[in-house]
Amino acid sequence: xxxxxxxxxxxxxGDDGLxxxxxxxxxxxxxxxxxEEWGMPVGDDRAxxxxxxxxxxxxxxxxxxxxxxxxxxREVFEGFDIERVAKFTDADIDRIVTDARIIRHRxxxxxxxxxxxxxxxxxxxxxxxxxxFLWQYxxxxxxxxxxxxxxxxxxxxxxxxxxxxxxxLRKNGFNFVGPTTCYAFMQSMGFVNDHxxxxxxxxxxxxxxxxxxxx
Length: 215
Description:
It is a single chain. This protein is mostly helical. It has a domain at 46-193: Endonuclease III, domain 1, CATH 1.10.340. The chain has twelve helices and two strands. A two-stranded antiparallel ribbon has the order 1-2. The radius of gyration is 18 Å and the shape is globular. The model is unreliable at 1-7 (pLDDT under 50).
């Protein structure tokens, strides 16, 4: 692994010679996440619910911390099965917060249970999938830069669309879904393509977004 920073602002060159967004840091698990998941569009309710909850757990921490605990999170929350988690009791929350393998934040654990119930209520109220509801907040292309740069990313930790999504989610009873959390969620689940211009994954994500059928 090399930490060499390329001539392209915000990119690093890996041992494989590929340019990647700097934040993956070169660690194998983070590189895989960057290359295979981050920015790829997702239309599955369960996966979107899981990621929204995990982004909430990330608040105040780094994503790599959550990523390395993701398998444990999936175990304690029964694969983030929405219907199962919605049935969790206070006793289940008490049990989960004692599990040292995850981030033991009672408020965030309780929010994961609450948000499962909120997904079910929202689907009944809106008569649509959770994915359809979320993808309505995909930013308009005109609001996006022609090329994503590190300078632009640092100046835009939130977006009007993420603020609108945050407001809509909170109105529907969701917790730990602030505008910054929602923007990180939108970046990771392909609502936007924020791979820095020149990153080896930028075109792959853009192609996936173009062929993706919105829910």
